[in-house]
Amino acid sequence: MAKRAIAGCVAAAILLGAGPAATQGDITGAARGLLDRLGGSQGSTQQTGDIAAGLKEALHVGVERVVAKVGAVDGFNRDPAIHIPLPAQLQTVQGWLRKVGMAGMADDLENRMNRAAEIAAAEAKPLLWDAIRDMSLDDAQRIFNGPKDAATQYFRGKMTPALSQRMKPLVDDAMAQAGAVKAYDSMMGRYSAIPLVPDVKADISGHVVDKGLDGIFHYVAKEEASIRDNPAARTTDLLRQIFGGGR
């Protein structure tokens, strides 16, 4: 394969291709050795750009799979790892409603919140791809020299604020589409009619945004591990070239 193609994916190969037992020293040493054999310096602008391209390819593949999984019907609702519970304040409401035989209203709201997360996640893929595209050369270099989960840490830590802001209108629309807003209003109307109950307020839209992103990042981390360990997960020519043969 051409030297440029190898260099373009070297970061993904080292970051994602190392086995679970590999140390950071092993990863960094292997990366430097491969770059030396390509006849260039790790710190060159061209190679740093190629590293970024390799990282973006790996993240792009992972996000594609994650969105397909969590954006499907019951992708959140029936997955115990990422199912979205009611906010803590509304769990109090749920307890009071249970006492008067109306807990089903809270259960219905919880179901609709998860439906909203599924709808919003399916619509969020372009936002996630934009975030990957905007990764800088410095970001790529730090990920390259970071720990084995550096890509997921970067994706979650740096991108969460911007993604939260951009996903909020998607979630608002999805909440309305799933009937969660109407279900919330009905539930709170019944709750407020119960004598002597405490006042409760909750930002269910913000809660769905936060928990929805938690679910996405949960599976981004698993995809990162899968691309590293499982040949069947390498579904692009780029990744198959890096991980195929000689390993």
Describe what you observe in this structure:
It is built from eleven helices and no strands. With 247 residues, the protein is mainly alpha-helical. Helix 1 crosses helix 3 (45-70) and helix 4 (88-99) packs antiparallel against helix 5. The longest helix has 29 residues, at 150-178. It is elongated. The protein starts with a helix and ends with a helix. Mean pLDDT is 76; it is low at 1-43 and 242-247.
Brief write-up:
By secondary structure, the chain is mostly helical. It contains eleven helices and no strands. Helix content is 73%, strand content 0%.
Low-confidence stretches: 1-43, 242-247
Order of helices and strands: HHHHHHHHHHH
Helix content: over 70%
Overall form: elongated
Our count of helices gives: 11
Whole-number mean pLDDT: 76
Query: How far apart lie the N and C ends?
Result: 15 Å
Strand content: under 5%
- List how many beta strands DSSP finds: 0
User: Helix- and strand-based class?
Assistant: mainly alpha
Rg over C-alpha atoms, rounded to the nearest angstrom: 22 Å
The largest β sheet comes out as: none
